[in-house]
């Protein structure tokens, strides 16, 4: 997916517009326990074109950071990572000095920029937007975050500017693996450890995708590609020191992956940012494995591993399906356990279950625990079928989708998992009307 970034001064309404664009999808995701509400990125689609969107304003700097420095960093990040930049301004404030400064940076980058002028809450304000032509990015788009007007026009402008994406040309039997995690968790070390393993055959053909250097390799007859994000190569840039800036990098790697290795620092434990990043892997429908690194320095007894795993389960309630591997990239202790798990979850991610088997399981589930009723009407499940893989996606045909409850959907998902495993992969369940 191409990436769209929203930049702009604080209080111009970036988050409101962001939420408008993400719309229903966000609401659905927030239903799930364990997903944090302060989202700064999400997936959307318009005119049949999918894209990811990030609110760079949600990436906070230290409180003392002066505003100008913070928006400069936003702009820098957007220029580096985004395919289309939405530059948000405020109709009430007009064009400010810092708007001009950011505009200059964006202009020099040559990236497509769409100017959105927020707080155009009534038609009288429409003439306020004309001064924004001076920024030099063509027609500014008047929007109102609070009223929801102009969002369609903004989305049209965004999708008009999205690039045609070059497809990966890896074959189907290749497992694409991304490593994500906050700085210093050991991503680079793990990449080197994997590639340095015995019997790993590293191909010297470099990857072909625009902004990543991918490393294809083979082990035990299985082909893999390690997706290296720019973050692993370019070190020491100022925004890398702010942890949340790595989120955008991670998003891009996740989009291209089949299996996402969510690295956790065994020495320091789990922090909130780990949850943000893992949540994106879940939303993007990718298979995942938790990798607890630096296991060599953890003081342990026979319960430590179990306790750590329990902590992971408590923190990542929405990803109970993901297995946990403990290892040390540095000493290579337990490293041999990793690739077999990656291979296993990749298989689950592409697994297709025959319709009759699926319906047998669902019939049993219904017999044990009948569907809910609402105002005297009972949900009737007529038919269940898996429509696609990566991730496994199952459609439940019912008499009336409104009668389906989240908790019952969860119940069915659990029964399906219990019967067919699907370890390591999210499952998508959709309810559709069909009598
Ligand atoms: P990245 O920012 O996620 O790519 O992290 P690096 O791979 O650069 O590792 C950060 C630091 O952690 C380096 O000093 C590594 O030597 C150290 N490190 C990485 N893996 C391990 C490990 O398994 N055990 C220990 N003790 N240190 C590690």
Tags for this model:
binds guanosine-5'-diphosphate, six-stranded mixed beta sheet, ribosome binding, about 425 residues, Rossmann fold, about 35% helix, ribosome biogenesis, single chain, alpha/beta, GTP-binding, globular, GMP Synthetase, Chain A, domain 3, G_ENGA
Distance between the termini: 36 Å
**Biggest sheet layout:** 7 strands, mixed
The CATH C-level name of the largest domain is Alpha Beta
Low-pLDDT residue spans: 24-38, 206-211, 230-244
Helix content: 25-40%
Mean of the pLDDT scores? 83
The unique ligands bound to this protein are: guanosine-5'-diphosphate
Description:
- The protein is α/β, with parallel strands linked by helices and about 425 residues long.
- It folds into three domains: about 5-160, Rossmann fold, CATH 3.40.50; about 175-345, P-loop containing nucleotide triphosphate hydrolases (Rossmann fold, 3-Layer(aba) Sandwich), CATH 3.40.50.300; about 355-435, GMP Synthetase, Chain A, domain 3 (2-Layer Sandwich).
- It has 13 helices and 18 strands.
- It has a seven-stranded mixed beta sheet with strand order 8-9-10-7-11-12-13, sandwiched between helices. Strands 2-3-1-4-5-6 form a six-stranded mixed beta sheet, with helices on both faces. The protein has a three-stranded mixed beta sheet with strand order 16-17-18.
- Strand 9 and strand 10 (about 220-230) form a beta hairpin.
- Helix 3 runs parallel beside helix 4 (about 95-110), helix 8 runs parallel beside helix 9 and helix 12 crosses helix 13 (about 405-420).
- Guanosine-5'-diphosphate (GDP) binds near residues 296, 328, 329 and 330.
């Amino acid at each position: 997916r191409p990436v769209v970034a929203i930049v702009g001064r604080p209080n111009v309404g970036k988050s409101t517009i962001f939420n408008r664009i993400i719309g229903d999808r966000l609401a659905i995701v927030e239903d799930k326990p364990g997903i944090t509400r302060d989202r700064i990125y999400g997936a959307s689609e318009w005119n049949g074109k999918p894209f990811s969107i990030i609110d760079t304003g949600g990436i906070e700097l230290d409180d003392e950071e002066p505003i100008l420095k913070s928006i400069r960093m936003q702009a820098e990040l957007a220029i580096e990572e985004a395919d289309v930049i939405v530059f948000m301004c405020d109709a009430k404030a007009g064009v400010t000095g810092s708007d001009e400064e950011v505009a200059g940076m964006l202009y020099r980058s040559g990236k497509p920029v769409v100017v959105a002028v927020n707080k155009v809450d009534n038609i009288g304000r429409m003439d306020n937007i004309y001064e924004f032509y001076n920024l030099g990015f063509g027609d500014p788009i008047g929007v109102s975050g609070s009223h929801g007007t102009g969002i369609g026009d903004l989305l049209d402008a965004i999708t008009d500017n999205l690039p045609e994406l070059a497809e990966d040309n890896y074959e189907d039997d290749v497992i694409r693996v991304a490593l994500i995690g906050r700085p210093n968790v050991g991503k680079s070390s793990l990449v080197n450890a994997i590639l340095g393993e015995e019997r790993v055959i590293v191909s010297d053909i470099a990857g072909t995708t625009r902004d990543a250097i991918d490393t294809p390799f083979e082990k035990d007859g299985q082909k893999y590609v390690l997706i290296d994000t720019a973050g692993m190569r370019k070190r020491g840039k100022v925004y890398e020191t702010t942890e949340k800036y790595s989120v955008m990098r991670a998003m891009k790697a996740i989009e291209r992956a089949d299996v996402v290795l969510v690295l956790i620092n065994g020495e320091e434990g789990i922090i909130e940012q780990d949850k943000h990043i893992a949540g994106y892997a879940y939303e993007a429908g990718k298979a995942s494995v938790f990798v607890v690194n630096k296991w060599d320095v953890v003081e342990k007894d026979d319960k430590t591993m179990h306790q750590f795993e329990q902590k992971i389960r408590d923190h990542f309630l929405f990803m109970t399906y993901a297995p946990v591997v403990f290892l040390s990239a540095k000493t290579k202790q337990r490293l041999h356990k990793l690739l077999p798990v990656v291979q296993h979850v990749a298989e689950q991610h592409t697994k297709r279950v025959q319709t009759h088997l699926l319906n047998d399981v669902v019939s049993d589930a219904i017999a044990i625990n009948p569907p809910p009723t609402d105002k005297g009407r009972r949900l009737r499940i007529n038919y269940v079928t898996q429509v696609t893989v990566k991730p496994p996606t199952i459609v439940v045909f019912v008499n009336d989708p409104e009668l389906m409850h989240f908790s019952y959907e969860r119940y069915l998902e659990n029964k399906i998992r219990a019967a067919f495993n699907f370890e390591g992969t999210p499952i998508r369940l959709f309810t559709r009307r069909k009598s």
